[in-house]
Design the sequence.
């Protein structure tokens, strides 16, 4: 807490200056437009804190961003209203009952030193029917956001029904370039989620297009290319699901995903080489679907920096909240350190396992479909319960919902009886690369208990792949084939 407060506190945020004032000048609210495109003009007025990033949203989803750096500099309170006793410019700004009165309406002048209002225009894509267009501006420091300017517009489009399409982008990294970061379930989970959503979505959409980006392909450059390609296909009326599995990290309340080629060289490398939330926002801006969900199954890689996971919970929740606020996408995330007991559960990460189960069990309304709220509620209820029963640790998911819910998929049972791993309709192979090494003679048994039959004995130095761990026993595989269960204490992670 002290470290975070030293870098940014409320006093620093207030001292950075007022947020700009935003007004949408064209078109007028309540109007109609023919077609699916509209040009929106806004006026952004500096209130002393300068003008930073400006975000354009349609129905809560961010579809455009004007970058910061337009040259507006913060002015002091006396410079804003030199003829008045101002005191704190921040409190004066919010104490005025009429934001167009006092010095806010004085306009640019040589005595105040404020820049003239900035006029910006953006072409935005609308969905058929009612649309809410919102513009938000930040001060130059990026610490304070304006009160949103909003208009309501009705888009009159072709009345012939067009069934939406579903697009799924599933990213998972097991085999990091740095083998110390190796994971067991991220890539298979991405495959399983992609296949599961394809099966469950085919009953609801005109088509379901799945893109998987795994292991060495999950670099920043390649993900940039993939988002660009999808951006040329996805329409506003389509549904987009983004699944991300691998190592994540939170630094200064900002989220970072570690790509395949990440190399750790101190905490600064996370900020320099990780994929931060600004880049994720930029990629998601290319996706025009106004119904979209982001699912993050990333751990915080506590072993990288040696800090305790308990101390990072609030900071991480803040980072995810900021990411959701910036993108407007409903987001569900579960994070943990990289302990095998949390990552491995019945062949999946425990979070992914719960998601897959939700596709067949979360239909509380009985309408045969799973919507956003039902999915979130199911995972919120079941994940802590399941993780505590299996590992004695409650893994609590983090979720931030948007104002509206929508059906994601049709109800589809994916999990086999008894909770066996879901391997997809075509089967997801077990990767051959090892994750652990045997450090003591290990009896491989048919079941996770000492009374079951012995299959084979593994000698020290034997390399195996961990599939799941529970109650002190670990299911292992070798060369892509399951062997059986060994005691977890006989294994250590490959370095």
Sequence:
């Amino acid at each position: 807490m002290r470290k975070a407060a030293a870098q940014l506190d409320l006093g620093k945020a207030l001292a950075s200056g007022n947020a700009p004032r935003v007004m949408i000048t064209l078109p007028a609210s309540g109007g109609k437009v023919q077609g699916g495109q509209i040009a929106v003009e806004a006026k952004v007025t500096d209130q002393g804190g300068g003008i930073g990033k400006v975000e354009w949203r349609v129905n809560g989803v961010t579809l455009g961003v004007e970058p910061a750096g337009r040259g507006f500099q913060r002015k002091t309170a006396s410079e804003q209203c030199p003829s008045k006793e101002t005191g704190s410019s921040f409190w004066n700004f919010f104490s005025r009952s009429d934001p167009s009165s006092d010095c806010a309406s004085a306009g640019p002048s040589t005595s105040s030193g404020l820049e003239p209002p900035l006029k910006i225009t953006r072409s935005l894509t609308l969905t058929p029917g009612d649309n809410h267009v919102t513009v938000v501006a930040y001060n130059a420091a990026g610490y304070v956001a304006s009160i949103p300017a909003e208009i309501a517009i009705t888009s009159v489009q072709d009345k012939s029904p067009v069934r939406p399409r579903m697009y799924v982008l599933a990213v998972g990294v097991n085999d990091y370039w740095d083998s110390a970061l190796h994971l067991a379930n991220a890539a298979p989970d991405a495959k399983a989620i992609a296949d599961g959503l394809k099966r469950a979505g085919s009953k609801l959409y005109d088509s379901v297009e799945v893109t998987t980006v795994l292991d060495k392909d999950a670099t920043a450059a390649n993900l940039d290319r993939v988002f660009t390609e999808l951006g040329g296909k996805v329409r506003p009326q389509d549904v987009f699901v983004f699944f991300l599995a691998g190592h994540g990290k939170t630094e200064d309340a900002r989220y970072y995903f570690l790509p395949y080629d990440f190399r750790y060289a101190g905490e600064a490398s996370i900020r320099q080489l990780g994929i931060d939330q600004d880049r994720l926002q930029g990629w998601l801006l290319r996706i025009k679907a106004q119904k979209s969900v982001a699912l993050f199954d990333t751990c915080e890689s506590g072993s990288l920096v040696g800090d305790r996971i308990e101390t990072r919970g609030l900071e991480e929740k803040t980072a995810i909240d900021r990411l959701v606020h910036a993108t407007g996408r409903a987001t569900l995330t579960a994070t943990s350190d990289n302990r095998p007991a949390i990552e491995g559960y019945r062949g999946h990460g425990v979070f992914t396992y719960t998601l897959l189960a939700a596709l067949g069990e979360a239909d509380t309304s009985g309408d045969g479909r799973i919507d956003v709220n039902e999915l979130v509620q199911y995972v919120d209820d079941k994940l802590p319960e399941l993780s505590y029963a299996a590992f004695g640790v409650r893994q609590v998911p983090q979720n931030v919902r948007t104002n509206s819910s929508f059906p994601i998929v049709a109800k589809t049972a994916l999990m086999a009886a008894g909770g066996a791993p879901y391997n997809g309709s075509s089967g997801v192979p077990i990767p051959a690369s090892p994750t652990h090494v045997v450090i003591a003679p290990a009896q491989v048994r048919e079941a996770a208990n000492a009374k079951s039959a012995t299959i084979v004995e593994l000698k020290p130095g034997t390399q195996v792949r961990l599939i799941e761990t529970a109650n002190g026993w670990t299911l292992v595989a070798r060369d892509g084939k399951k062997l059986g269960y060994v005691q977890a204490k006989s294994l250590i992670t490959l370095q």
In short: The chain is about 25% helix and 30% strand. The radius of gyration is 26 Å. Residues 71-112, 301-317, 336-341 have pLDDT under 50 and may be disordered.
